[in-house]
Write a structure and sequence with these properties.
Elements lengths: L1 H16 L2 H8 L14 H8 L1 H27 L21 H19 L12 H11 L1 H18 L2 H18 L4 H17 L1 H9 L14
Length: 224
């Protein structure tokens, strides 16, 4: 079990570390670490460069998390590291998963989140892992991810604060896992991920309290 866990963690980290926000902005001649909130996440890219680049980064960052979980599950059901039933592709990815496969999937997801926030390709700088975490949970825990996305949409529509929507959505994950009777492992990891997302938003929390946080629809900053 140690070898598959290590593989899942390494692959997940390298996927998460892919700095799509930085690369997309660089292709436009902008160093995303020097403009806006100086964050390479989709929100800052969208604010600085517009909806097209921002949405592209959002999709790519979410895909990193989804792929990290998906590959981890396939690893656990492969012929070489078989620790659970083979995945046929016709059923819910986690519906027949053993505890060991769930552990592999979680290892891949956590590694991807850490890779995104502390990318080895950008001097261990990175984003807040909201999109990467969301992509992973869409595969790992679809009902909880769906609830979180709805909560995110409602919060952003009501307040126009993406940062607040991200934090509230993250907090709903462990609540959904608990009330939907998921495994203690998944509940615990959901709590940890929610706490991590909130901590990564500590600067946003300060700006929210001060009333200086950027809202959806505000004029984008002109790149230097």
């Amino acid at each position: 079990m140690i070898v598959p866990l290590l593989i899942a963690a390494v692959v997940g980290y390298l996927l998460g570390a892919l700095p799509f926000g930085y690369l997309v902005a660089k292709a436009k001649g902008v160093n995303i670490f020097e403009v806006g909130s100086k964050n390479p996440g989709a929100t800052n890219v969208r604010r600085v460069l517009g909806h097209g680049p921002g949405n592209l980064v959002l999709i790519l960052d979410a895909a990193k998390g989804a792929l990290a979980v998906f590959l981890s599950v396939l690893l656990g059901t492969s012929s070489k590291f078989r620790i659970g039933p083979a995945f046929s592709g016709s059923e819910d990815l986690m519906s027949a998963a053993t505890g060991q496969i769930e552990l592999l999937a979680i290892a891949g997801l956590i590694a991807a989140i850490l890779g995104h926030s502390f990318s080895c390709f950008t001097g261990f700088r990175g984003g807040k892992s909201v999109a990467t975490g969301a992509g992973g949970f869409i595969v790992l825990f679809p009902p909880g991810a769906g609830i979180a996305l709805v909560v995110f949409g409602i919060t952003v529509a009501a307040t126009r604060y993406i940062s607040l929507g991200s934090m509230v959505a993250a907090i709903t994950l462990p609540l959904s896992a608990y009330f939907l009777h998921r495994s203690p492992l998944l509940i615990g990891v959901s709590v940890a991920v929610a706490a991590f997302v909130v901590i990564r938003h500590r600067a946003n929390i300060s700006r929210l309290i001060a009333g200086t946080e950027s809202k959806v629809g505000q004029k984008k900053e002109t790149p230097k």
